[in-house]
Specification:
This protein is α+β, with helices and mostly antiparallel strands and about 725 residues long. The protein is about 20% helix and about 30% strand. It contains 13 helices and 42 strands. α8 runs parallel beside α9.
């Protein structure tokens, strides 16, 4: 499995079994070798004979390495400086290789070793994640693109809140800044009218006229920030800017910007990128150039920009176009040197002005940037959500999952905005719910699917976030769910007391290396069937409260409403057509007494139901001698549910539950009583499946973060 750059900005996944299948610009490579390994493992099962080997091309000095295969099935290492004057004659530490029998641990160990060697970045768990990851948000991009206005921002916030899903953060994307094209020369004005539009460049630090307050011109962008926070209750307001200021950089010769000493530079795009993306030869950035701030002045630039924003109440920035720096290193020490200088300045400014670590990295999938990420905690995981590009949606879900295998070790992947009213809305929404990253939409004001959004968002604007980056399950790491016509994609994540699996049919479209674009290909139009096991959640044992847990799970399927008690290593089938999905909550079963077992799912009408359970404690009650309990013995997974025929209490389940809605759990016996706080609550029990449901009709009382739920069995 290779993560390679199919565009300058973004990676995608490619699977194969020969050296020639490894694409140009591969930045992460993992291989699977079955049988015959000399690596010792903890067990003796067939899976323990699989060895996973991770190859990480690195930064060495001022050179950046990547991998590629050739027609002889050999693996090649390519090193580039991006500057003809930056040369060396030998390399000694350009690729790191690690092997083991646990793929996820092998990757983590490799990244940790590289971190200790390079000393230029930190891992995800060492960084502060900004508060936006725990709340629902809205981004202006796909709603307005560059035509965004102050009035449009307020309309979007008001529209979402009116339907019961109030956003708590907003990203004001491209369109708020002061920009302009280069001044036209006399000869330019008389030339062909078909000449391309001039590339826009930053002409000032402050907002443009659309975001100025006519009644109070001094308020500027602070006006919409105050409206968002004071009138609409938002916690965070972010704005967009490019790493070079704007797409075309900072315009040289503008009096207000002359202190940054920007000069025109023309991108020199690496050959491997151009092979994948030949359009660079006629791209506006390549032809018209970029006004690059002098690296000696770039901290001053970021500091003054971010100081202005922070003073206005802005909490963070989405920093776009990051990979462009690798193309501008000629005469400046090369791509690695220039990227490091810019990122050091950016990190320092963000730490100074945005104490919540308010930054999202975007268009940043080169290892020049990834391996100097000390500050940034959130990174966009793939190419954009394209609402009008129908073939992109299955590609998007696969890309974010596989890219997260690599990116998720260093930052929390952000799986991008989406539209809640869209043919693929349900497909995208469920994936965001299990991604572990921020959840936000880019709906046009007034165009929302609130029934769908309420599967993601609680009435207070918070979300039920999973704890880790969502990644493919172990048995999907080397399958090809976009191309092979037979595989479903399974994505796993963890909550505190449960796991979650998203299952997706992503077949039918993929990156085509011959045509160098995404294309649709022939695939079976019917359903594809895959299997789900409890252990597909790789760390499911961590969710068990019992150190001697047997491995038995209860699973709840969100779409079908089916509850399945699943013994250790047992599996059940799931069949899906293209663009269909299923979300499965997986909870370890606790045996309270022979025949009496329990497993809570959480708020089962939400995609990530188990994220609602904040605390879980089982109180086992010693049954008096002679009490008539069920005769059922065994592993606690009964063939049919039973009722406690005695008046004796077997156990009490204590839970703290966030949010409101329909709460569900598996119980092998009908509970005696359910209470919320001090009040007994009616519940329903389906004896055929063991599903217990009760309704938490409102959010926890003011001053309390959770409902105190007790179930007596």
């Amino acid at each position: 499995m290779a993560c390679f750059r199919f565009k300058l900005w973004w990676m995608a996944q490619k699977m194969g079994d020969r050296g020639r299948d490894i694409p140009l610009e591969t930045q992460f490579l993992m291989t699977e070798t079955k049988y015959g390994s000399r690596i010792e493992s903890d067990g003796a099962g067939e899976e323990d004979q699989i060895v996973y080997t991770v190859f990480l091309p690195l930064i060495e000095g001022r050179f950046r390495a990547c991998l590629q295969g050739n027609s002889r099935d050999e693996l090649e290492l390519l090193l580039e400086s991006g500057d003809a004057d930056t040369k060396t004659s030998s390399f000694t530490h350009s690729v790191f290789i690690n092997a083991g029998t646990d793929p996820f641990a092998t990757i983590t160990d490799a990244i940790r070793a590289v971190k200790l060697h390079l000393k230029t970045f930190r891992q995800r768990h060492e960084k502060k994640l900004p508060g936006i990851v725990d709340y629902f948000g809205w981004c202006t991009w796909d709603a307005f693109y560059q035509e965004v206005t102050k009035e449009g921002v307020e309309a979007g916030l008001q529209s979402l809140a009116a339907g019961g899903t109030p956003p708590k953060f907003v990203i004001i994307d491209d369109g708020w800044q002061s920009v302009g094209g280069d001044p036209l020369k006399d000869e330019d004005q008389t030339e062909n009218k078909n000449k391309p539009e001039p590339l826009l460049r930053l002409t000032g630090i402050k907002e443009n006229s659309k975001f100025q307050n006519k009644e109070d011109p001094t308020a500027g962008i602070k006006s919409i920030v105050n409206i968002a926070k004071q009138k609409h209750g938002l916690k965070y307001v972010y704005v967009w800017h490019a790493i070079t200021g704007y797409w075309g950089g900072v315009r040289p010769g503008v009096k207000e910007m002359e202190q940054y000493d920007s000069s025109m530079k023309y991108p020199m795009v690496p050959k491997g990128v151009v092979e994948h993306e030949p359009g660079w030869k006629t791209d506006a950035l390549a032809l018209q150039g970029i006004g690059l701030v002098n690296p000696k002045n770039v901290y001053r630039f970021y500091n003054e920009l971010h100081e202005f924003l922070a003073t206005a109440g802005i909490d963070g920035v989405k920093v776009d176009e990051q990979c462009i720096l690798e193309t501008l290193g000629a005469g400046l020490g090369g791509r690695v040197e220039l990227t490091a200088q810019y990122h050091k300045a950016l990190d320092t400014s963000v730490a100074r002005h945005f104490p919540d670590n308010g930054i999202i990295a975007c268009m940043s999938h080169n290892t020049d940037a990834i391996y100097c990420s000390k500050q940034t905690g959130v990174v966009r995981a793939s190419d954009d959500f394209f609402p009008r590009y129908l073939k992109s949606h299955t590609i998007h879900i696969a890309a974010v999952a596989y890219n997260s295998v690599f990116l998720g070790e260093i930052m929390q992947p952000d799986w991008d905005m989406f539209h809640s009213m869209h043919p693929a809305a349900d497909y995208h929404a469920s994936a965001r719910a299990i991604s572990g990253g921020p959840i936000y939409v880019s709906d046009v004001p007034g165009k929302h699917n609130f029934d769908l959004l309420k599967k993601l968002v609680l009435p207070d604007g918070s979300v039920l976030r999973a704890h880790l980056p969502g990644r493919p399950t172990r048995d999907c790491l080397f399958s090809d769910p976009n191309r092979d016509g037979v595989s479903l994609l399974k994505i796993w994540n963890m909550n505190k007391y449960s796991g979650v699996i998203g299952v997706y049919n992503c077949q039918g479209a993929a990156w085509n290396s011959n045509e160098r674009k995404n294309t649709v290909h022939e695939t079976q139009s019917g359903s594809i069937t895959g299997i789900i096991r409890g252990r597909d959640v790789d760390l499911i044992a961590d969710a068990a409260t019992d150190p001697d847990w047997s491995g038995d799970c209860a699973v709840y399927c969100h779409k079908s409403g089916e509850l399945i008690p699943l013994p250790h290593n047992a599996a059940f089938p799931v069949s899906l057509k293209i663009l269909e999905h299923e979300i499965v909550t997986v909870t370890p079963i606790k045996v309270l007494a022979p025949g009496f077992s329990f497993a809570p799912f959480g708020l089962i009408d939400m995609f990530n139901a188990g994220g609602a359970i904040q605390e879980l404690r089982y109180e086992e009650v010693k049954v008096k001698k002679g009490a008539q309990l069920s005769e059922l013995e065994g592993n606690g997974v009964p063939e049919e549910s039973i009722e406690n025929r005695s008046t004796e209490l077997v156990g009490v389940v204590h839970m703290e539950v966030k949010g409101c809605g329909r709460f569900g759990a598996y119980s092998s016996a009908k509970p005696r009583k359910c209470t919320v706080g001090s009040s007994e609550l009616d519940f329903e029990y389906d004896s055929s499946s063991g599903l217990v449901t009760l309704n938490l009709s409102h959010m926890p009382e003011e001053g309390q973060n959770v409902h105190i739920v007790k179930v007596e069995i």
